[in-house]
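The pair is quoted verbatim below.
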Amino acid sequence: MTVDEQLAYLAKGCVDVIRADDLRAKLERAAAAGAPLTVKVGFDPTAPDLHLGHTVLIRKMKHFQDLGHRVIFLIGDFTGLIGDPTGRSKTRPPLTPDEIAENAETYKKQVFKLLDPERTVVDFNSAWLGALGSEGWIRLAARYNVAQMLERRHFRQRYEKGQPIGIHEFLYPLAQAYDSVHLRADVELGGTDQLFNLNVGRDIMPAYGLEAQVVITTPLLVGLDGTEKMSKSLDNYVGVTEPPGEMFGKLMSVSDELMWEYYTLLTDLPVAEVDGMRRAAAAGELHPRQAKVDLARRIVTDFHTADSARSAADTFERQFSRGEVPTNVEVCDVEVADAGRRISSIMVAAGLAKSNGEAARLITQGAVKIDGVRVADKFDMIPAGQPPFTLQVGRRARRIRPLGS
């Protein structure tokens, strides 16, 4: 690629590039010298079960890797002991060393679904932060002042409200910045919520005789609901270790509009190609459903295999487009009293709804079927002695085995 093409590829889907001119200069020097850039990304091992929202950043690491640059997957086993204050209204409890070690191993297994393990440097920042010593930490702390720290919105808000801020919380962005110094980072990547921490590294590197790193941030991915950021707590996520069929089905529930953001952030397709598909869909030359199938297949292939993606697509077509009843689903034993039990209650018992109210709403919306037949009334009952049946809610299904009271 030319330098302009590299810049476009690396900036695709990003929110901040600080600064683009600096990145151009670094790319030009790297090409002239035949030496790769050092690209650093830090992960505190606090939530090791990754979903697609986490992979937006990991995919950007892959883009640098695709261009031959040196990517460092930095596990913050030392900074995890401090606790990242980002977005926190109160002091975060630190992790124990055992929790950090366990979570770090899980992280490594999951990120290599996208990254090339042979070309990824895995490092732990305890190696240098633990050895910094008292004098080193004092010298590091002298590079920044309290006024600069209070420019961080969350610190300022807590200070103005009289909420406590631990002195150790100020050490977190300094520790992250020193990681960049030690690794001599050319570029540091992070989510938009990490912008302050990333810029601290950019600020202090010149004090150590180093060129300031380029800071690149990626957006927070909107979840399946199309409203909130992807989160397990909101149940609007797609986990990277979910089975192919479950992953495919969830992606097919994404709105037509949100689909294009997923194409930009969750695939390696160039922006021009995504824009072309979007124009074709708007002109009626490409059916949005086919574009969504192609998106789901691409993403499932990334985290599983092309064969499993094809199989998931075929199964989805049979079950949800042709109305076939799914087979080989989880069997659930559910108590049914002599007087029978409402279907909405059975949905909750089988884990297909969080509450009776949600179950009733899903029935009213026409999202619930029994053995392929749509349930018409939220008050419908399953009588005692009913033989096993398949209960289907949207893309999910359970084989219900009624048990007498």
User: Anything to note?
Assistant: The domain at 331-404 is CATH 3.10.290.10 (Structural Genomics Hypothetical 15.5 Kd Protein In mrcA-pckA Intergenic Region; Chain A).
